[in-house]
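Figure S7 source data.
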Amino acid sequence: MKKKHTRREFIKVVSVSGGGFILATYIPFNNLLAKAGDDPKIFSPSVYLKIDSNGLVTVIVHRSEMGQGVKTALPMLIAEELEVEWEKIVIEQADADSKYGSQSTGGSTSVRRNWEPLRVAGATAREMLLIAAANKWKVDKSDCFAENGFIVNKKTNQKFSYGELVEDASKLPVPQNVKLKDPKDFKIIGKRIHRVDTPEKIYGKAKFGIDVVIPGMFYAALSRCPSFGGKVKSFKADKAKSLPGVIDVVQISNGVAVIADSTWNAFNGRDALEIDWDFGPNASVSTEDIRNEMIKHLDEEGSLFENRGNINSKIEGEKFVEAVYEVPFMAHAPMEPMNCVAKYENGKIELWAPTQNPQNAKSEVAKALGISEDNVTVHVTLMGGGFGRRLVSDFAIEAAEISKASGKAVKLTWTRKEDMKFGFYRPPSMHVLKGSVSSEGRPIKFYHHVIAPSIRQMRFDKNLTAEKSEIKEGTVDLEYQIPNLKITGTLIPTHVPISWWRAVYNSQNPFAVESFIDELAFAAGKDPYQFRKEMLPDDSRLKNVLNIAAAKSGWGTRLAKGKGRGIAISAGYESYCAQVAEVSVVDNKLKVEKFTAVIDCGVVVNPDIVEQQLEGAIAFALSAAMKGEITIKNGGVVQSNFDDFEILTYDEMPVVEVHIVQNNFKVGGVGEVGIAACAPALCNAIFAATGKRIRRLPVRLS
Amino acid sequence: MAKFNLNINNRNYSVEAEPNMPLLWVLRDKLGLTGTKYACGEGICGSCTVHIDGNAERSCVLSVKDVEGSSITTIEGLAENPDHPIFKTWIDLEVSQCGYCQPGQIMTLAAMLNKSSSKEEIEREMSTVLCRCGTYHRIRKAVDKLVEEK
Ligand code: FES
Ligand code: FES
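Tokens for the predicted FE2/S2 (inorganic) cluster complex:
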């Protein structure tokens, strides 16, 4: 017999059903469930939502919440079309499942790829409820409309709640091509809706991956080879096993794991392992070797990415500029270190993973354990930042292997040191730039040769060529109208694991491009804003954000001595951004005073989240531009914590003013476009303040 | 293993732990108080901040044996009053992004507001609590508002 639930319990049950320990955010609602029955019928015309006969609307979020607000923004799309009150929606996090389409949460895709499908899902459900009501009343559906969780009969003013229509609607065929709302009728999209995940997070109640506890669970720590590509030769576990709380020691593909009764005891046990490492073929590689590999190619031409006009033609009176730019390896260092809970039993595994890439975790774990994907369940937890790091499934594979090898349910937790040393890093790059301007100050030539390792080549396709690689991102298709232009690239290998870091190659290529454009402006004797503006076509959205940024930042107004402004633009992810940095440099000490950021991301779903993303992107990019870098010694990473890999602090954060362009263009991404323009705006401002050109990051003034 | 009597959020707990185990792991692994976060483990980032007798302290570098007899408050304890002005302001200004560092930010600030610390002290202390999502801009707005309202 089914247990009778009170309304509150009922909501709880629903919210837990998605994966046991992932507490869905819900806002309990008032009277709608007064008639709550035992066994609600469920109407689920799409994988993204369900409505039960009590009127409870559950939205399933299939992308990962890592701080960027998807858990709020995606349900807004459904709620808008479904015509339900926002406060009454229950939000559930989806497990890994191909039925949702791509769940990979990267590339600023969550909103722009789901803008249409999720609205269609909401609109389809609404339409079916409408037809169900019309049938009941025996009226035409045009005589009915949907409002706040009810279908209303226009003529009689009678109402059915969605809950009352669930059974009938479930029997209807799913209509195709339903009409979506006209943007002018939006009630939810475009509003500053509060994030649904904030209260539980600030009360300390939210469950991140690292907080997951399952019955019978032990704690695991793993020792990995300090140089990338090395492996265990042999090990002694006696000392570790003699320590308090240590229960077991097992070897897995990536090292030796200690299982204990607490995280702390697991860490200590791991430190007591005596491992003889085979440091592998890269045991002597250092940052200098990798730099030299790039330097080797500086004088070469590189493979052709883009060509127009003739950069070798001779032009009377042209003035040449040349420079080499460079950026280092960079760590993601999300505040929550890598971790994963895994429980292997009878050939099946269940994982609770803070992953940006649940479907990848599922397939990679299946591969590693030699089981079918059907036997792998991945529950997605909240995550304390991702920034691309959690697109790789290494931590899930490790936890799965440890659970299988030990026969125990385990939570694997990485220390910060391990998080720093065993990441997948933003690749370094060097950039050769050459250009010229005419005696009237017009741009004539622009040449850019980017030298960098390709993530795709290193990770997936050894035969990938530079022309086909993604290192061109941010170097080609510039909107600047420069008559003679040539863009080339060269791939270099690296043994250091590399991966997608917020904005990927847009985190480095635009630094070189937009800084060099500034150099050309200076050579031309032109104001850097005017110089850019004159090179952009009139109907350009980039030009528009550039103009707004200049106006809002007070571009051109006088600044005190030692202060300077810098400007830069970026495009990507179907969005456009311009930033003006204002800095002061006193006694060689840099202070970033203010950033003015303008974004055009088409239709805006939630302006507050857009602003958060811009503010966050600027802090994240400033950390990379001014603070820590990752260096390599003896084949491994030198840095080990936030003391030797510093990030921006509270007192270093500039005032950030965000302006959002209002229009109805197709929705664009907002998580990454704000990264690209930040470093060049900063360095151009430093130049304006000091006359010193920064061509290598991070900025070191003395 | 030894037994420790701890006073946390005005409740008494008796826990068995290794004497050197940091309070952080006792809270998280032994008592299920996971609101206190692990991020650096070396006293650098402030994510694990709790109150020990009213002072903001980093629980990752405090041994459990050293906090017996103290009154310990965690974020869960502070959140027993969700109407605390810090929480209200945090929600109003929508400060949090991933949220992972936020308990530490809030606990650090709460201790200082309780003690009516000066603006300079607040500035100095808040500058030692790290946030990778870059919520500093909004934390500052929240701090300014809370200090003004006091
Ligand atoms: S985790 Fe304690 S200060 Fe960072
Ligand atoms: S909100 Fe993500 S680390 Fe601070």
